[in-house]
Design goal:
The protein is of the alpha+beta class. It contains two helices and twelve strands; from the N terminus they run E-E-H-H-E-E-E-E-E-E-E-E-E-E. It folds into two domains: 56 residues, no CATH class; 119 residues, Calycin beta-barrel core domain (Lipocalin, Beta Barrel), CATH 2.40.128.20. It has a ten-stranded antiparallel sheet with strand order 6-5-4-3-12-11-10-9-8-7, with no helix packed on it. It has a two-stranded antiparallel sheet with strand order 1-2. The longest helix has 28 residues.
């Protein structure tokens, strides 16, 4: 039986019939129904806002660590590096890295620093770098002084934090490169 405060529906009907009161009288809420209505509202609001808070609190992945290129798992096209180790120091928004590797038979080393907040910086090759977040993906766009694209790089971190995938393309080589780096 439906309950409305202390009086149940059968008692209400009998009371109204004996007194001649018309149905349609609005019942006043008891403290119990008022509390239950507030609980329902709170539950409804929590289902809307908690997922939003979780996304905000999630933040961005941290790429800090030493990463080694897995040449066998990577698709780098022709002329890619045969060995590559990247040491990343990532304290968002500052992203610093040191790369050491072998490409085209010669060893190389380079160090760069940029920010992930969308501000433009200049790298050691004179390229303007603008990096920003696209969800959990770090996107870096390198442009020449005339605004033309030099490269586009997208970094993602695996859910377990042990693998970085870098999708990279550059101006003179439109072939997409999929580089897989394993945490050391």
């Amino acid at each position: 039986m439906w309950r409305f405060g202390i009086i149940d529906l059968a008692q209400l009907c009998a009371h109204k019939k004996s007194t001649g009161e018309k149905f349609g009288t609005i019942l006043t809420a008891t403290p119990y129904t008022a509390v239950m209505n507030n609980v329902r509202k709170l539950f409804l609001l929590s289902t809307i806002f908690l997922p939003t808070l979780a996304l905000v609190a999630q933040g961005h992945p941290n790429f800090t660590g030493t990463w080694k290129l897995d040449v066998a798992k990577s698709e780098m096209g022709s002329g890619g590096p045969t060995k590559l180790v990247v040491v990343v120091d990532h304290k968002d928004p500052v992203f610093k890295y040191l790369v050491q590797g072998i490409a085209a038979g010669g060893q190389f080393e380079e160090s760069e620093t940029f920010t992930t907040d969308g501000k433009t910086s200049r790298d050691s090759h004179g390229v303007n770098v603008k990096a920003s977040w696209d969800g959990a993906e770090l996107v870096a766009v390198g442009t020449a002084d005339d605004g033309s694209m030099v490269y586009l790089s997208r970094l993602t971190l695996s859910p377990d934090g042990k693998t970085i995938t870098r999708v990279f393309t550059q101006k003179n080589d439109r072939e997409l490169r999929h580089e897989i780096y394993e945490k050391q």
